[in-house]
Write a sequence for this structure.
């Protein structure tokens, strides 16, 4: 078990003081000139399994991509899961400052193949929900603890001050239907 726990960190600088980049965690940033959309996984790698893969697939070659990935052998969640309201890694915030649309991919412990939708961008969230349902996927509004409504939540740090947080259950993250989920979100972003 790690000796420094993310729950005790107030900001990314606290995390960076306790853990070493490219040893304990990795940052991947792929800007897409001409795109004002960013897809991110602030709890990627070993923190919330498969969220990096999903974010990469949604971003494809069309949208900006940002990943914060845990690389520890064990205990990534406890050590590196900086809450989305406190996630202020400078390169991420700088990238989002140029984006009108932000989609943040997370993992949740909800049973079954389900997506919980949150964030402050009501129009984009509604469009994604409609597309997910049309694709035969189950989605619900995120409960208050996962709603991504705080203005400081990383999904809301783009130019508009609003974005979408997608909390994806482990069952869906592991499922072959994950590609249906990715395609549905991409269809909305490409429209």
């Amino acid at each position: 078990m790690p000796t420094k726990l993310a729950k005790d960190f107030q900001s990314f600088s606290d995390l960076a003081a306790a853990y070493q980049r490219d040893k304990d965690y990795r940052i991947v940033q792929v800007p897409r000139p001409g795109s004002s959309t960013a897809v991110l996984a602030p709890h990627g790698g070993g923190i919330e399994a498969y969220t990096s893969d999903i974010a990469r697939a949604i971003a494809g070659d069309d949208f900006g991509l940002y990943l914060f990935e845990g690389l520890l052998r064990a205990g990534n969640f406890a050590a590196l899961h900086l809450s989305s309201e406190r996630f202020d890694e400078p390169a991420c915030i700088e990238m989002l400052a140029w984006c009108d649309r932000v989609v943040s991919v997370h993992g949740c412990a909800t049973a079954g193949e389900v997506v919980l939708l949150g964030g402050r961008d009501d129009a984009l969230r509604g469009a994604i929900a409609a597309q997910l349902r049309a694709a035969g996927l189950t989605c619900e509004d995120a409960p208050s603890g996962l709603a991504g409504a705080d203005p400081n939540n990383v999904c809301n740090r783009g130019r508009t001050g609003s974005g979408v947080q997608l909390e994806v259950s482990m069952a869906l993250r592991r499922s072959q239907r994950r590609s249906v989920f990715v395609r549905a979100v991409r269809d909305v972003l490409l429209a």
Summary: The radius of gyration is 15 Å. The mean pLDDT is 97.
